[in-house]
Amino acid sequence: MDTTEHLDVVIVGAGLSGIGAAYRVATELKDKSFAVLEARGAVGGTWDLFRYPGVRSDSDMFTLGYPFRPWTEAKAIADGSSILQYIRDTAEEPRIRDSIRFSTKLISAAWSSEDARWTLELDITDDDGATARRRLTCGFLYLCSGYYNYDRGYEPTFPGLESFGGEIVRPQFWPEDLDYTGKRVVVIGSGATAVTLVPSMAKEAAHVTMLQRSPTYITAVPSRDKFSDAARRHLPAGIAHHVARAKNVLFTQAFYQLCRRRPEIAKKLIRTQTARILGDETAVAEHFTPAYNPWDQRLCVAPSADLFKAMKQGAASVVTDTIDTFTPHGIRLASGQELEADVVVTATGLSMLPLGGATFTVDGAPVNLGDSWVYRGLMVSGVPNLALCVGYTNASWTLRADLSSRYVCRLIRYMDRHGHRSAAPAVDGPMKARPILDLTSGYVQRAVSAFPKQGDRQPWTMRQNYLLDAPTALHGNLAKNMVFDAPTPPAAPAPDLQEIHA
């Protein structure tokens, strides 16, 4: 007899997305059995893994937080430890807490159309570090593990690195015992991690230099949201949270649309703000004026203008140049300048990893994501009963993540009502392909072929617009471009015992 455990829904990942998904399944699919599989030993995902100085959100917590759990902290742009505690507090809801299976890594998933279920191969690590392979089946699989490789980041080759006499640090694996007090630090990179690290490390280091190959758009935003503070003073917590969330959604979308439709105006606004804070037009022109338009790559934020203030105080500086070679005492640049350093931090970006590194098959055939199309931003063409949780790049991740979770719950309820066991998106004709993430950033371009494509029409586009996605996710046609299996015939009614004995 087959003793393999079967669950209705399996969620992979116990980070911000996975805990939100667990809440939705627990409250909207109350009759369904489910589990959350977490490869690590703790709740929190990214916010538990990343421990570098100053780690924080770059989205406001009224939109990065869950709509069902009001954010009550003072800061709208929150530090990593506060976000981690918020996720852990949410996970303490009994049905969520009891559903999480730690140290359980998804290795492979095989779909059987005959059985209408996924068979999952899992590696489960015990308290002694021993790993055993186990099997689990489920009716619907929901991947909430993000799209980054958390085991390794992007590591470009640096000439002469072995000659450097100081410490090399990777933000993804920050050493707890690193002491940079009074030391000269060079942070290589200009993305969100570098923009976070520089002002934080500058408080204790002798000096911090951000070495960038090319400029990035950086906007200063308040750490506290005065509008939201006022709403919380005068309104109940739940209503205030929704009011602040709505205001920030509208503002973020309006600015994004301005960047895409009138980039010259957006450029001028960003440059003018930076020049006003720094008081140095030359520095703005050299270090903060990218060659691309705003939102061709992700926009970085400086809460309370912390990066610019560190520069004005002389605690930090920015150098725009390329690396010639590392030297025993630092980094020599292509211009001939040498940056002396005791510590070099390589904030060179993350690597993208589809499906958490697991392998997938459908009726024995391997799933090649690069040949697939993304459906409504969360499902994959030709793959039944599978959803991927992918957040926004131009707004808070959670805005789309929560819509995806609610869509998954709607779809499962729809299948139950109509007697279906499986649903798979089906392409209805040729389309012009675009990358799933419409950004020119290096980490996106390096991974384009490993991820599903988006098309040129709905429902095959990855819209970066919450205001358009919300009605579709919550009320849209669930049958559009979806192939269901034949309805299961209703169970025959039990025979009347009196008639049998008559």
UniProtKB/TrEMBL annotation:
Q: Which Pfam families match?
A: FMO-like, NAD_binding_8
Which branch of life, at top level?
Bacteria
> One MF term in GO for this entry?
N,N-dimethylaniline monooxygenase activity
Q: Which residues form a coiled coil?
A: none
Q: Which UniProt keywords apply?
A: FAD, Flavoprotein, Monooxygenase, NADP, Oxidoreductase
Query: Which cofactors are named for this entry?
Result: FAD
InterPro entries (alphabetical) = FAD-binding_MO, FAD/NAD-bd_sf, Flavin_mOase-like
Entry's family note: Belongs to the FAD-binding monooxygenase family.
Q: What name appears for this protein in its UniProt entry?
A: FAD-containing monooxygenase EthA
Q: Taxonomy-wise, where does this protein's organism fall, top ranks first? A: Bacteria, Bacillati, Actinomycetota, Actinomycetes, Micrococcales
